[in-house]
Amino acid sequence: MDPFDDLLRGVRADGVRFGRTELSPPWTLRFDDEASLTMLTPLRGEALLTHGGDEKPVQVGDTVIARGPSPIVVTDKPGAAPDDRAVLLVGSYQLRGKVAQRLLGVLPPVLVVPCAEDCTPLLAFLDSHVAAAPSGQAQDRLLDWLVVCTLRTWFDQPEVVAPGWLHALSDDAIGPVLRAMHTAPDKPWTLVTLAREAGVSRTTLAHRFGKLVGEPPLTYLTDWRMTLAADLLTESAATIATVARQVGYADAFGFSAAFKRFHGMSPSEYRDHVAVCSTA
To answer: Alpha-carbon distance 29 to 201, whole Å?
Structure first.
């Protein structure tokens, strides 16, 4: 497990607003439902994406991912003939939880990813599944894989300004440290044990980690633990003591104090707050 895998685990469709749409020129689609993420891929025909006054062409096989709540508008390409029918796959997500918010925080408002060879088989498979069965869990998981594949392709583009930790994953010393933190957040990590994972001294680790990631190792670890803990509190009925152990705290008291410093409320208050908001 690494930071990227952990971020993408928040991408999970839940059978909402997904389908295959056939359109004849002139056509316009407006997405203003404030979804966390909106995904669109032309299977046939070209389109024009408008967001915030900017226009971007979208070719067959390209995938658009828009981060809410700003609306986007997609239209047929100017000059399209009346018989130039377009076929689009469209899906939307309401991402919940602190891990999902970390993902949204590193994405631009709109990204257009050129047709990627790795994702093409998923597109064809998803298209055939939609035609056969308009809804279902299998279809939702295919959509998840397509979005994850698209995001991985986008992050791999050299011109993309990715977060520091993503570049740090390829570093011989810092990459193993990041993976260790995310694979086992419950371990009692210290600068000494993390330096052992990196195979360098504590001083070298602290300097190199700060340079590549932008913050000290233990600060990054605390941020990740508190983010993960927030989701564990709301995704299960686990006790606060259990959640504390899952994120590396030996007792609930120390965990609760750290959680309140980070989130501004105690674990029980946070759990109640999220429960109230989800039913409002």
So the answer is: 56
pTM of the full structure: 0.78
The tokens 């983010």 sit on which residue?
227
Residue reference for tokens 């997500």: 93
Domains of the chain in start order, with CATH, are 3-156 (2.60.120.280), 167-279 (1.10.10.60)
Residue pair 33/72 in contact by the 8 Å Cβ criterion: no
**pLDDT, position 264:** 96
Cis status of the peptide bond prior to 69, with omega within 30 of 0: yes
Q: Please tell me the distance from the alpha carbon of residue 54 to that of residue 129, in angstroms, as a whole number.
A: 33
At residue 90, what are phi and psi to the nearest 5 degrees? -130, 135
* Six token digits for residue 270: 């946070």
Give the span between the Cα atoms of 22 and 256, in whole angstroms. Answer: 52
SS3 content of the chain, % helix, strand, coil (to 5): 50, 20, 35
The Cα–Cα gap between 40 and 20 comes to 10
Tokens 């498979």 found at: 125
Where does the chain show beta strands of DSSP type E? 18-23, 28-31, 37-44, 47-51, 54-58, 63-67, 72-76, 86-93, 110-113
pLDDT tens per residue across span 113-142 = 888 777 777 777 777 766 555 555 666 677
Residue 208's CB is within 10 A of a number of other CB atoms, namely 19
Q: How far apart are CA 203 and CA 209, in angstroms?
A: 10
Question: Rounded to an integer, what distance in angstroms lies between the CA atom of residue 26 and that of residue 243?
Answer: 54
d(CA 91, CA 123): 13
Burial profile 228-239: b = 16 or more Cβ within 10 angstroms, e = fewer: bbbbbbbeeeee
Q: Is 28 exposed, middle or buried, given 0-12, 13-18 or 19+ CB atoms closer than 10 A? A: exposed
8 A C-beta contact, residue 63 and residue 41 = yes
